[in-house]
Amino acid sequence: MLIRTPAAWEISSRLATPESAYWRRRDLLLAAGLVPTLSAAPARNPEFRLDRDLTPEWAATSYNNYYEFTTDKMHVKDQVKSFVPRPWTLEVGGLCQKPRTWDLDELERKMPIEERLYRHRCVEAWAMAVPWMGFPLSQLLTLAEPASGARFVRFLSVNRPDQMPGIRYSGSYDWPYREALRLDEAMNPLAFLVTGLYGKPLPAQNGAPLRLALPWKYGFKGPKAIVRIEFVAEQPKTFWNTYAPDEYGFYANVNPARPHPRWSQAVEQLIPNMRRVRTLPYNGYGPWVAGMYNGTEI
Ligand SMILES: Nc1nc2c(c(=O)[nH]1)N[C@H]1C(S)=C(S)[C@@H](COP(=O)(O)O)O[C@H]1N2
Ligand SMILES: [Mo]
What we know:
By secondary structure, the protein is an alpha+beta fold. The chain is built from nine helices and 13 strands.
């Protein structure tokens, strides 16, 4: 079978209809007061176009990976009922001149919120295309004024066994969920801190109230429910890389030529219809990110 691989910047002719229908529907619901209103609808960043349809909202919010709640992807949404995403504080610290504890509401008011359509590729070979809302991670990091010794940035997810049944009932994982990036990766314009999706505040199952989206990496590199961001000198230990280093590399850039030890990464399946699509190097984001790598990163 020959699968045509469109360039990252090509717009799919099939995208126009569902997208405009989506916005029309949202406008109607907004007018009727049925959608939690954001102070202003965020502007869509036209730089980020998709080669596939947007994943339907119901699918992106009901098929989730979030081990703090359950390993059953279809039921994360049913396990998040007691999770409290507000008020929320985010600490930014470590090797920087201006460490600060942010109230998330204040941070969101300060940052220019935009919408980006990003492909989203799990290491398990399922994929989506999601309209995230948020702001570039670089904007927050710049405010902190990283010190010269800062070479990596690490992220901690919240650790609330009382609100997260998966933490209570899973013995073998080392909570909290942790991730990290090299400083240049964290400063790349694609690295995006997410506060909403489909024009609404982020649902708990998708990582409320703050998660990271790194569209050129496998999904596990994007932690949910972030409470701390820290500049550090050495490459930190991360959750999946520590648990199974042969299966989950530190860099984890999407790479169709490098199979997972237990499955191929050459093809992905689109949620929810499981249509098979050829995977692109860096998930199609090479023009933005390939220059940061020499090809040996795993
Ligand atoms: N804290 C935390 N963050 C996490 C995870 C998790 O289990 N816990 N799963 C990761 C994985 S493997 C993926 S694919 C994405 C899934 O995000 P989604 O449910 O919004 O699609 O979240 C990532 N972030
Ligand atoms: Mo994943």
